[in-house]
Amino acid sequence: QVQLVESGGGLVQTGESLRLSCAASGRTFSDYRMGWFRQAPGKEREFVAAINWKRGSTDYADSMKGRFTISRDNAKNTLYLQMNSLKPEDTAVYYCAARRIITTMWDYWGQGTQVTVSS
Question: Residue 47's closest CA among 30, 62, 28, 33?
Answer without folding.
Answer: 62
